[in-house]
Protein: HEAT repeat domain-containing protein
Amino acid sequence: MSNGDDDPADASGEADAAGDAEDAADAGESTEAAAPTRPDEATEESLNEYLDEIAAHLDDAETEADLDDVDALLDDAEAGVEKADLPEPDEDDEDADDPRGDLESRIAELREGVEEARGPYGSDIIEAVETAAATLEDTEWTAAGHADAADAVRTFVDAAADAIDVEDGDDAEEVLDAAESEYPADTDEAADAAETPVEPADAVPIETLVTALDTVADAVADAELDVDHDADTISALLAATDDLADGLDAAEEWDDLETHEQLRAQGYYDVLGHYKDYPVEWAALKEHESRGNIDQILLALDSLTSDFMERHCLEALERMGKRGKTEASLEELLGRAEKRDQFAIRILGKMAATDATETLVEFVPENSNPQLQKATFKALGEIGATEAVQPLANQLASEGDTDELVQPLAARALGLIGDARAVDPLANILADAERDDDLRAAAGWALRQIGTREALEVVADHADEHSFVVSTEGEKAKRSLDASAAVA
Structure:
């Protein structure tokens, strides 16, 4: 509005400027300030001013195209810094200014700002959905947790169907509708149910929940959401994925339960009636041993970390011997045996676990650990491992400070295995009067266990030995030969 003092020429100029702006807008041209240009004279000051202008341009950026422009400007600034004749810092002065380094740092910070300003994209939604699907598959849920996870997926699918106006969004709802009609789970009942790591019979299967999430991810990909034009849709979907992640995080996992709750849920304490032994875990363990419940013994071994319960679990398996041999118990004991656990090696022997032969044979020559050798030799003998005959025979011929401690057990192991290939090395030990009498007696015992006529005759020849323990084996061999002759 004019006050009568305005210069007509000025008014005319303002009108022309306004008209030019309107014409530019009608032509689709931007009315924003033009993009900055790099100064002709590249100095530290001029380049910093250029970067200030680029930073302002970044603050005003509203679209991906604007951000692309900022990236191009930063490329230009980087080229300017590279070509500029800037003073180099004094290498001997740690506090000296470094103009080039400072400018490069500013450019790097601005590039980070560009990346932070970009997006979010449809691919971010797909990645979040795929992460949620992986969580569903990889997690062991309790019954209550399974129900809560299903609720979280249903809520997300409903939100996705509202946000994406494509058929696939509805398809995800149809997947869940069909599944829920087939598995009419009562959420309240599921939440009150006893915790169990097994998928509840009346719950929507995890596989179906994952399928529904995959359907949403496909729908997002097909929608080809544009980061600028579909910003609201992307924002809504990302908020829904955040809620989904929070829902799954809050749902109860099996690992969330205390150890005693896990044991209770898996029926470990169900065998208890009136009991006198404490702790109650030990009382239950004894009952499981008497009933041959190997899985429950292994459950206790895995869950109860006290040395007391670990020892009693292993002792239970040892007492059960072959009755305790299952695929699961062998896997557990072999894992321990591979770590040179002598208790586990002993149990594998009692189980006659042929699966352990390969592992145990590797321990035969470990002369630096005689206790390990003793446990290994005995176990190989009880297993009847013919693959161990030669390694054990080699131990009979070796000489060392610890060999005398373990060689009798090597001889006895050969006897338990009962392979005729051991006759000659055992006979050589028995015939060597310079060897220890206990070792020679062990060789005689082993030959009697092999029991061939040749083996018995070798031992019988030593019935008149001056050593009582050796002659005793010889006399027993003579009686066995006489008994065979009488039968014939």
